[in-house]
Amino acid sequence: MDFDAVLFDMDGVIFDSEIKVVECWKEIADKYGIEGIEEQCYECLGTTRGVSRSIMLEHYGTDFPYDIYKKEMSDLFHRRYGGGRLPKKAGAEELLEYLQLHNKKIALASSTRREVVEQELRDGGLLPYFDAVICGDMVEKSKPEPDIFLKACEVLGVEPKRAFGVEDSYNGIRSLVAANIPAIMVPDLKQPDDEIRSLATVVLPDLYAVMEYLK
Predict the structure, then answer these.
(1) What is the pLDDT at residue 198?
(2) Which run of H or of E encompasses 90?
(3) What is the CATH number of the domain that holds 186?
């Protein structure tokens, strides 16, 4: 299939960040005696901060001090991985360079806030690769709704069916399919179940495999 653009999620696709976030959450959970935090983190994959907050409150109760714990977790995460120390996924730079060299448009479509996304891309030296950066605080509805990917296509000036999307989360794959964008899944923390395998155009082991597939 010929294509005009590739749309990337960030956490768990470009950066090996999701496992680091879970590790930080587990440290906070151990400190305060919070049980089952890892499972809740998995439930929050691919969602905005607001949706994640709702998931946590639904599980732990409305009196759960989510905002306090989230800030402590974020502070811990940025102390460890800020300033360009966040590891990139294997093949990320090579794939972005290949797409740029072949004049394909590139967008980032992340549920994370724009301020955080742009800082992490800048610190990692990746921001110049992207023609558009669309974030969770720039659209009305979070993944699995299609808004963020449709906006990315609109900004790039490409038809959804002429793009590929690369995602690691269930909600991300659902969002791409809802947007009528061929979905490439590169699993990170969770392997695809039967539903996700049926939705994804292809499931590949890493970004090097994505590059070979797009060739």
Answers:
(1) 98
(2) none
(3) 3.40.50.1000
